[in-house]
Fold this sequence. Notes:
This protein is of the alpha+beta class. It has helices at residues 28-40, 73-79, 82-105, 131-140, 150-157, 176-189, 256-262, 303-306, 314-324, 373-386, 410-430, 437-443, and strands spanning 17-24, 46-49, 65-66, 113-114, 117-120, 145-148, 165-168, 172-173, 193-195, 202-206, 209-214, 217-226, 242-252, 269-272, 278-282, 288-297, 333-344, 350-353, 360-364. Strands 1, 2, 9, 10, 11, 12, 18 and 19 form an 8-stranded mixed sheet that branches. Helix 11 crosses helix 12 (437-443). The longest helix is centred in the N-terminal third of the chain and has 24 residues, at 82-105.
Amino acid sequence: MTAEPDxxxxxxxxxxxxxxxxxxxxxxxxxWTALEILRRAPGTxxxxxxxxxxxxxxxxxxxxxxxxxxxxxxxxVAISDHAEARRLGEASERAVDEILDFVDEHGIDAExxxxxxxxxxxxxxxxxxxxxxxENLARAGVEPLRELSPDxxxxxxxxxxxxxxxxxxxxATLQPAKLVRGMRRVxxxxxxxxxxxxxxxxxxxxxxxxxxxxxxxxxxxxxxVLAINAWAGQLQExxxxxxxxxxxxxxxxxxxxxxDAIGWRDATSVCDARKRLNYYRTTTDGRLLFGKxxxxxxxxxxxxxxxxxxxxxxxxxxxxxxxxxxxxxxVPVDMMWTAPVEYAVTSVPFAGRLRSVPGVFYATGYSxxxxxxxxxxxxxxxxxxxxxxxxxxxxxxxxxxxGAIPGEPVRYAGSRMALAAQQVLEGREDQGAFVPKAVKRLxxxxxxxxxx
Length: 452
Ligand SMILES: Cc1cc2nc3c(=O)[nH]c(=O)nc-3n(C[C@H](O)[C@H](O)[C@H](O)COP(=O)(O)OP(=O)(O)OC[C@H]3O[C@@H](n4cnc5c(N)ncnc54)[C@H](O)[C@@H]3O)c2cc1C
């Protein structure tokens, strides 16, 4: 993205402005929300600011899986009931089509390909990790996930290290940064005033309006939307509901003939079922994208701003890569990066209204799955901002969960211990070795243990 020439259409804001809605954050959530508000209330005057550039956050650095929320069905049931979880699952499935239709309609070269998403066991211990989810889905009367035998799961992507899987056929992959930059273009065309390199530094209420303060300007707005994702952990009232950890991603050089040789010929994307998950998919030019979650964390609330740059644990990512794709051991890596993922106590996103400053709404907590779900959260935010009483403002995603994640220094020390325990567990499970009870106990301490 830094290589993209500056088109001069989103200069840093200098001087005070007035608008109906100020959106803070130019990732998928902020841009979808601006577009959704304009669709429902044409003529709304919207100013969108981003501390970096649109797509400078996770929206420009993710793995590009576009998925419904079926694999999170247990978490959806936990925040609502089977009927609401099904309604949200179906809406998230439609969101996949809506995103791809948007890409087509606006001629965005997002390199999308429809293809199944596979939730795979990459060790014996992960077999059946999806069983409760399948039971919950059956109870709700839907069957979006289909089981594969160990052999089918291996052959689908040419790995010797799969031990079974379930697949969701209604998914896609795309180039994430191209999607978010295309959304920026459409938002500009529709009249959204975008100012990049304009960080929000404060919020206050004055004479019935909300003031969003930036280094060289003040934006006076009727409503403010905080679409700042992992940075929302900086907000005191949300800090005990989320933990931010880093995810490493590597991209090989193009090697279509090698993928063909191992038998990976379609757009199947994969996540395995370990907590610090491995994720892998191919690209349109025949590369393999391979990533790993939970590779590091930052102390305090600065986390989201610090987890950028080269991969944090390239050696560990390589070990997993070789375990899954030993035949590709000689393929060079072209690039690698790390980026922050915020995990919510509910494992699903949530939206709400800031208690400390009236007129401010937020959505965050995607827990690693935001490309498709950000479209739903934009609907929730648009309903909250416009004061519409509907299925979005009333949905289970519009409720901020209670959380009790401890503050520093306990949070950092505790999270480090939990991640270290997960690493030990993974190593032992990959070898089929015994896992001590103490390790299992520590591994069970994840953000969901602090939901209140
Ligand atoms: C490595 C990685 C892989 C992932 N893979 C997938 C995947 O394959 N599929 C999937 O569904 N999800 C994936 N995700 C998650 C997904 O990318 C996110 O959930 C999604 O991009 C969130 O969008 P967003 O707009 O809410 O946040 P972001 O894209 O992070 O946007 C937030 C924006 O807020 C801006 N901002 C922050 N603070 C301020 C401030 N004070 N003032 C102004 N602006 C500010 C930032 O600069 C940023 O541009 C992945 C995430 C990562 C990190």
